[in-house]
Amino acid sequence: METRLEDEVAFEPPEDFVAQANVSDSSIYDEFAANWPECWERAADLLDWDDEYEQVLDDSNPPFYKWFTEGKLNASYNCLDRHVENGDKNRAAIKWEGELGETRTYTYQDLYREVNEFSAALRAQGVEEDDVVTLYMPMIPELPIAMLACARIGAPHSVVFAGFSAEALATRMNSADSEYLVTCDGYYRRGDSLDHLDKANEGLDGVDHDVESVVVVDRLGGDGFDRDLRDNQHDWDDLLAEHDGHRVEPVERDAEDMIFLMYTSGTTGQPKGVKHTTGGYLSYAAWTSHAVLDIEPEDTYWCSADIGWITGHSYIVYGPLALGTTTVMYEGTPDYPECDRLWEIVEKYSVDIFYTAPTAIRAFMKWGEKFPESRDLSSLRLLGTVGEPINPRAWKWYHEHIGNGECPIVDTWWQTETGGMMITTLPGISTMKPGAAGPPLPGIDAQIVDTTGDEVEAGRAGYLTVNKPWPGMLRTLYNNDERYISEYWEEYSDTDSDDPDDWVYFPEDGAKIDADGYITILGRVDDVINVSGHRLGTMEIESAIVGVEGVAEAAVVGGTHDIKGEAVYAYVITEDGYEGDSDFHERIIEGVNDAIGPIARPEEVVFTPELPKTRSGKIMRRLLEDVANGDELGNTSTLRNPEIVEEIESKVNAQSD
Ligand code: WTA
After folding, report:
1. DSSP string of 396-407?
2. Backbone dihedral angles phi then psi of residue 59, each to the nearest 5 degrees
3. What is the pLDDT of residue 268?
């Protein structure tokens, strides 16, 4: 397998991996197809239910599907209590590594204790079942503790990525009517302490309703910033001390009760509140962790994503903890203090399974082999990727230099909305083809279709659709059933029908399929840019830029980028009397920073007197993308101002020289 890597197009899973894999019999595909939807009992069986469910799927009112109807369970119980009760209380649940090198290990017993105490503290703050609690925290253990405490008392959490701005926090708290916030004083990035509470406070100032209570974790200790907590703000440690030793009975939740909300970018400027439920989501996260990530309780498993995104929810917290394994959490960046930091962690904790994003792999490639080579990575058994397409060269590099040619790789396609993995090879069964995610998982019915909904031939590009519901799917957009239908279903469904066969989920990705049924994802077909695996809406960025004083109009597109996959390119028309100089440039970057966060910062800002528009006044983004990518310009004949494209192009070339 190690020979002629360059021209190899397919890889088989190694025999010793297959021999120990959780799923290794390829009959599972037929079995699930023949026994659908009852096949999903396999997923539900991974959990402990307080009350058995009656029906696996209720599809009487599509696309408002219900899974495991009348079933009752608690996610915190499934992630903690049952492992403590089953004799695994001394197994490490979380191994945390801070950026400065400090470490903390929580056994299942430790985590159980702290989650109980924090559940009691939340109740004492007035949090009741179904209240949405916003968690605005970086990668510190208190984040999963707070998530599980919310789940324990049946209060859905809404985690806001710590890198998002104050304004983004306020928008999300407003949208969810959330009256409770858990945050922290700060955290470390590349050795410096960052002031997080300042940002949180600014966000709180933008909340349009009363906020009952804010809990603040003291992350920085002596490095903390000098300031007093506000009246409704409480110190995490004080609250835990007040509730020392308290136990809180896990609340029985209906399978269809909300477990959490997660905001994600879409086509409009308003982020969408994706609603996930307790029974379906947790079963699906656990099942895919078992079948795809091959997690066993004895493993040390590490997903290097941030819990602020769905990947961290499903595959740092809920899936791995439901299976009772050890999950590693790292606070910092991969290149601090050196570019071998991640490999140092793999070595130190003897990590068995490692799950990361292609953007990280491209950065590792750039830094060079010497970093992984300086560490012992022989504990690794399985590798995974998620978030964006992985190019075959990066796949092979990962396979060879991290996996030593011996670990299967799962390239997992899924979304915030799908709750868990949908398209990927099964590591103990399938041939791997670098660049192609693989076939849909057993029980998942996906197709590649043309604009009319007909299946395209093998090799042709089309649109990815999912034709049957699955347990981990979103149930709706928070308080917005209409937008749920228009965003995900309208395109390919007969929305007047109540026959579930007439309803087709549209993830808004382009894709192609080969003769073996392997799907290659080509990327988003809506106005979403995928920067380093993070979804950003062009409209959100445009509205941030238009909010900067002196900007008349802006258009934002994604252009390809060596490391980030895609980067943000902004084209800006200034108002009369404003000069497109470096100072203005800086103000635009700052404007995006303040409205969304550093991840959305434009790679390039190009000032232009006009934007390319059709005669009806629509901005031709496709042409701006051609410019950003340095591609030959597409057809400009439908423009009312064709000359502007070349003008913009020559400006871009001048800027990048
Ligand atoms: C993209 C992240 C190619 C895709 C879990 C999707 C991928 C969006 C892959 C969802 C993959 C995710 N190959 N593209 N393996 N995984 N994507 O909601 O465009 O942050 O629609 O969820 O990421 O991003 P989200």
Report:
1. HHIIIIITTTTS
2. -110, 30
3. 73
How many A from CA of 438 to the centre of ligand 1? 14
CATH of 532-656, one of 3.20.20.30, 3.30.390.50, 1.10.10.10, 3.30.300.30: 3.30.300.30
Instruction: Note the pLDDT tens digit of each residue in 381-390.
Output: 999 999 999 9
Q: Which of 147, 118, 150, 144 is nearest to 131 (CA)?
A: 150
Burial class (CB in 10 A: 0-12, 13-18, 19+), 610: middle
Mutation pick for ligand 1 pocket among 362, 521, 536 (CB with most ligand atoms within 8 Å): 521
At 483, which helix (H) or strand (E)? Answer: helix 481-488
Q: CB 139: neighbour CB atoms within 10 A?
A: 23
* Per-residue pLDDT tens digits for 432-490: 999 999 999 999 999 999 999 999 999 999 999 999 999 999 999 999 999 999 999 99
Pick from 250, 332, 302, 272: nearest CA to 537: 272
Amino acid present at 355: Y
Distances (CA, A) of 289 to 22, 251, 322: 10, 25, 9
Does residue 303 carry a pLDDT above 50?
yes
User: Which one-letter DSSP state was computed for residue 87?
Assistant: I
Cβ(414) to ligand 1 under 6 A? yes
Which two three-digit tokens encode residue 242?
């007040």
pLDDT of residue 8: 56
The single residue listed with the structure tokens 């981990």 is 472
Pocket test for ligand 1, best of 535, 536, 566 (most atoms within 8 A of CB): 535
